[in-house]
Specification:
The complex is a heterotrimer of chains A (419), B (289) and C (308). Chain A folds into 2 domains: 174 residues, 3-Layer(aba) Sandwich (D-Maltodextrin-Binding Protein, domain 2), CATH 3.40.190.10; 210 residues, Periplasmic binding protein-like II (D-Maltodextrin-Binding Protein, domain 2, 3-Layer(aba) Sandwich). Chain A is 53% helix and 13% strand. Chain B has 2 domains: 61 residues, no CATH class; 210 residues, MetI-like (MetI-like fold), CATH 1.10.3720. In chain B, helix 5 crosses helix 11, helix 8 runs parallel beside helix 14 and helix 13 runs antiparallel to helix 14. The chains are: A alpha/beta (419), B mainly alpha (289), C mainly alpha (308). Chains A and C meet through helix 3, helix 4 and helix 18 of A and helix 12 of C.
Chain lengths: 419, 289, 308
């Protein structure tokens, strides 16, 4: 009996050697666009953990344009009947994919790990289709952050602004001293990210939700929205002339080097500071975007899981889902990515002060209604409406003589046409 | 210039040389910038300007781009992708050239009813924007079981390259006198005999054109490469895109430029070595075609 | 039909019937694979796109027909208007400037120039680069902070300013510059080879008649290079329509959407925005425009050839 067992083991082992991709372990092909410094490190951590479990990681990175290229590839792969095991899809697009029947249910894993207890309902709703999990959230990003170079602020003798009016005051002083007040990259999604923060500051969370989640025309086509555009225009006037086409991390680099003083960007920017070896509170500061303290625009990265046929691959896929929500991974990943864990039961002791502040605001704002999904990152509305808003906003930001009233009309009709 | 001087320098001569040399400069500057930048250190790039020579020459950009730079999660440089491109380009170039040669032969020497229509439709086919065909092509490849495989990618490149190769060969063969073919037929030579014995031996210039054109197009393609290949079989243009977009804090322009040079090297070599055949062959067709 | 002229010898007569029909079918058999892949890969897919342009397909193809609604929406879209007028501007300037530079350089290079081979190679090499590489390099050169402008400032010309790349009104011209840089040398080479084929006795004869060199080129030589113009325009139009890669690498359509081209718009609506119906409609308009420009041109060119 013993010798038979040994025989079997030897056989299995030799099979393993001969056929490295045989049934012993599955492979997971993961489509993502995490290619910038901190993101790539975070993805590497996931790869390592999957390999430790004996699975093969097939990396499928498609860089560029905030995932635009990756989405093209994913759609082609899906219609060819050959989707990857997991793909970085977020927000309302998860539902669109699920409706078309491409995604697989993760109920077994979710029940087993008790996901409903771990993940805040606002986020788990986005991950579910017909009550079942079809995607795994990885992290929570806060979009309404202001990144500040403290040395520059000290030299000019100004404090970190907390309201838009303070921001304008501070920015004027910075400009007078020859600094670029606001580092920015002139790409549609970055324009929208700044607009996102200004809109939250001017409208407040309730009207923000009405405008960008419910598309309530009373808010979209209103004097309030005109004021948002006017303020946005003013904020953008503190950006240097050469911003067009600049990547967000290049803009972050300008803050690090002290060429620019501030940047309004989500906390993935923190990953760049971290990767450059900088410490929050010393080398750089994180503050809520002007006028939005206490509020939290969230952006959740997630992996949607596609239906697969190979049994071992399905097992690997389930392991991937499980691994993503493991505390060790959540810590490791989010420390690299700049975000906070999606699990609410995590010990934040190992995280830096910005992440701790983020977690605090996340929890307090989800109680007092200040927690809103970010429209500029696809959490609030469909890609079609989002695209229409992007067009209006970026056109406004690049216009020679911007007209807030006219643009508000344009925004209203653009959203209407896409509904 | 000595004998020009001896004959007396005419102002028009000077103007001609001036214009030609100025144009040389304009065409060369981007390449020079790429080259010098690839040999600089990142510090050097930030402190000096575009055309300044490196203060200390280093090949670190090149070695990094070749074997260490990150393209996503892997950090093995572009070397693997470089060979992928060859694996894809060589069969695609050969097959499309062969098909083009046969098509050109038939469309010029064995015209059948509808041959002109077919030619016109092929011509129009050269102009179809490739973005249009991505989704249906993906579906078709899926049905054929060739999705995300190198053979699938080869098929795509053959499909959208054969219009051009046919155009080249047809225009070239039209210029060859029909009498030659007729005589061969009278001697009892068949379809293939005429092709292989008579036309092919005189086709070297146009074969060069087809090979160079197709190689350049296929090697440089990004869209099909990114959509129809996956992971380890991605061509170098896709890796280049990933590499350029993968950055930690400060962009390493020397690595980017070195990687761009590596990606461009095979086609550059082809143009420099075989460029004159290219031009000769192209006009051989269009002059009389 | 000419195969009937064959007179098979008596010995081969038995099998000649079969051979004949084989010979008759061979040409068609040989082009069959091409007809198949082109028929499906270009015309089949085009038809499919046409069908989708009449549907409300959003995220993935669906077949819920809505008539001309997508076209109507397209016509109202500010961004589409910008994209189409950009293509007209870009295409016109690109083809025009390339032809001009190509002709001038070719004529100059045809004046018994030393090191002609080397100069020719220098003019030609940009064509070997991928548009992604060209776009990346030019983006860097034209970036005011890093490139040309900074260099001029370093050299002491501090008032020098060149901000076209980041100026919404001028960014499209930087795309023209990069594209001309890439393709004009190729046009030059086509014309140079054409000039070499011109019978030099024509020039001598005209010279004897007292015509000046520019007049000879303008009146005699260039008109005889009509076929070269034809192939050049074909190649350039092909490049202009495919300039998608160049725009993506240089500006991604920005600042704002000021450098959008129809191909970029189509790509963005179809894949990024999940509006396949709308994207298909824009593709059909693009194809229609190409057809409208190309068919008359092709027709006249091909007819002329037949008369020769």
């Amino acid at each position: 009996m013993k010798s038979l067992k040994r025989h079997f083991t030897a056989l299995a082992m030799s099979a393993c050697v001969l056929l490295p991709t045989s049934v012993q372990a599955g492979k997971v092909e993961v489509l993502h666009w995490w290619t910038s410094g901190g993101e790539a490190r975070a993805a590497k951590a996931l790869k390592q953990m999957m390999e430790d479990q004996g699975h093969t990681w097939k990396d499928f990175a498609v860089a560029g344009g905030g995932g635009e290229a990756a989405m093209t590839v994913l759609k082609s792969r899906a219609v060819s009947g050959n989707p990857p095991a997991a793909a970085q899809i977020k927000g309302l697009e998860i539902r669109e994919w699920a409706e078309l029947g491409f995604l697989t249910s993760l109920e077994g894993v979710a029940d087993n790990q008790n996901w409903d207890q771990l993940i805040p309902p606002m986020i788990s709703d986005v991950m579910k289709y017909e009550g079942q999990y079809v995607a795994v959230p990885v992290n929570v990003h806060r979009v309404n952050w202001l990144w500040v170079n403290p040395d520059v602020m000290d030299k000019v003798g100004v404090k970190v602004p907390t309201t838009l009016d303070e921001f304008f005051e501070v920015a004027d002083k910075l400009k007078a001293e020859g600094y670029i007040p606001l580092a920015h990259g002139g790409q549609p999604w970055q324009d929208a990210t700044v607009f996102d923060a200004v809109a939250l500051a001017e409208l407040g969370p309730e009207d923000y939700r009405k405008a960008f989640v419910e598309h309530d025309m009373d808010v979209i086509n209103s004097k309030k929205m005109e004021r948002v555009f006017a303020q946005f225009d003013k904020v953008m006037s503190y950006v240097d002339d050469n911003a067009a086409g600049r990547d967000w991390n290049t803009a972050t680099g300008m803050v690090m080097e002290g060429e620019a003083a501030m940047q309004i960007m989500g906390d993935w920017a923190k990953a760049e500071f971290t990767a450059a070896g900088q410490t929050p509170g010393e080398d750089y500061l994180c503050a809520p975007a002007p006028g939005t303290s206490g509020d939290f625009t969230f952006n959740v990265d997630s992996f949607a899981m596609f239906s697969l046929s190979d049994e071992e691959d399905v097992k690997a896929q389930k392991d991937l889902a499980r691994t993503i929500l493991k505390p060790e991974f959540q810590t490791l990943f989010n420390q690299n990515k700049g975000s906070i864990p999606v699990r609410t039961d995590m010990d934040m002791g190992d995280f830096d002060s910005c992440a701790q502040a983020s977690m605090d605001t996340f929890q307090s704002s989800s109680d007092d209604g200040g927690l809103v999904p970010s429209f500029s990152h696809g959490l609030a509305t469909t890609s079609h409406i989002q695209g229409q808003i992007f067009d209006v906003v970026t056109n406004f930001a690049n216009s020679d003589n911007p007209d807030p009233a006219k643009t508000t009309d344009q925004l209203a009709s653009a959203i209407q046409s896409a509904m | 210039m000595t004998d020009v001087v001896r004959r007396g320098v005419r102002p028009s001569r000077i103007a001609i040389y001036g214009v030609l040399l100025l144009a040389c400069l304009v065409y060369l500057i981007p390449l020079i910038i790429m080259l010098i930048t690839s040999f600089k250190t990142p510090m050097d790039i930030r402190s000096s300007n575009l055309l300044a020579l490196p203060t200390d020459w280093t090949t670190i950009g090149w070695t990094k781009a070749w074997a260490e730079a990150c393209t996503g999660v892997q950090c093995e440089g572009v070397k693997g992708f470089f060979w992928n491109s060859f694996k894809m380009a060589v069969p695609a170039v050969l097959i499309s050239t062969l098909l083009g040669a046969f098509n050109g032969y038939v469309l010029s020497k064995w015209k059948f009813r509808g041959a002109d229509l077919m030619f016109g439709m092929l011509l129009f086919g050269c102009f179809v924007p490739f973005q249009v065909v991505l989704l249906p092509m993906a579906q078709t490849l899926g049905m054929l079981g060739m999705a995300n495989t190198t053979p699938g990618l080869v098929l795509v490149h053959v499909t959208y390259g054969v219009a051009f190769t046919t155009l080249f060969f047809r225009n070239y063969y039209v210029a060859i006198p029909d009498a030659l073919i007729k005589a061969a037929r009278l001697d009892g030579a068949g379809f293939f005999t005429i092709f292989f014995r008579i036309l092919l031996p005189m086709s070297t210039p146009i074969i060069m054109v087809s090979l160079i054109w197709q190689f350049t197009q296929i090697w440089n393609d990004f869209l099909f490469g990114v959509v129809f290949s996956s992971g380890e079989s991605q061509p170098i243009t896709v890796a280049l895109n990933n590499l350029v977009n993968t950055s930690t804090g400060v962009k390493e322009y020397n690595v980017d430029m070195a990687a761009a040079m590596i990606a461009a090297l095979p086609t550059l070599v082809v143009y420099i070595v075989a460029g004159k055949y290219f031009i000769r062959g192209l006009t051989a067709g269009s002059e009389k075609g | 039909m000419e195969y009937r002229q064959r007179r098979p010898s008596g010995v081969a007569r038995v099998s000649s019937g079969m051979m004949d029909s084989l010979q008759r079918w061979l040409p068609k058999l040989v082009v069959a694979p091409t007809v198949l892949i082109i028929g499906i890969g270009i015309y089949g897919f085009m038809l499919w796109t046409a069908v989708l342009s009449f549907t409300d397909s959003s995220f993935l193809p669906s077949y819920n027909f809505v008539g001309l609604e997508q076209y109507a929406k397209l016509m109202e879209s500010q961004r589409w208007l910008v994209a189409s007028s950009n293509l007209a501007l870009f295409g016109g300037l690109f083809i025009g400037i390339c032809l001009l530079i190509g002709v001038v350089l070719a004529i100059f290079l045809d004046q018994r120039i030393r090191q002609e081979g080397a100069i020719r190679t220098i003019y030609l090499y940009p064509m070997a680069l991928s548009m992604i590489v060209t776009g990346t390099v030019w983006r860097w050169i034209l970036n005011p902070r890093q490139g040309l402008e900074k260099m001029m400032h370093d050299w002491g010309w501090t008032s020098f300013s060149f901000d076209w790349l980041v100026n919404p009104d001028f960014a499209i011209y930087t795309i023209v510059m990069a594209a001309v840089w890439q393709a004009s040398g190729f046009v030059m080479a086509l014309f140079l080879a054409g000039l070499r084929g011109v019978d030099s006795s024509i020039i001598s004869a005209a010279r004897v008649d007292g015509a000046s060199l520019p007049v000879i080129y303008w009146k005699l030589i260039l008109p005889s290079l009509r076929p070269v113009f034809f192939s050049s325009v074909m190649v350039l139009a092909h490049i202009a329509i495919k300039s998608f890669d160049l725009v993506m690498a240089m500006t991604s359509g920005g600042p704002g959407y000021s450098t959008d081209l129809p191909a970029v718009y189509m790509y963005a609506t179809t894949f990024t925005r999940g509006q396949i119906g709308q994207g298909s409609a824009s593709a059909m308009l693009m194809l229609g425009a190409i057809l409208a420009l190309l068919v008359p041109y092709l027709y006249s060119e091909l007819r002329e050839k037949r008369h020769d």
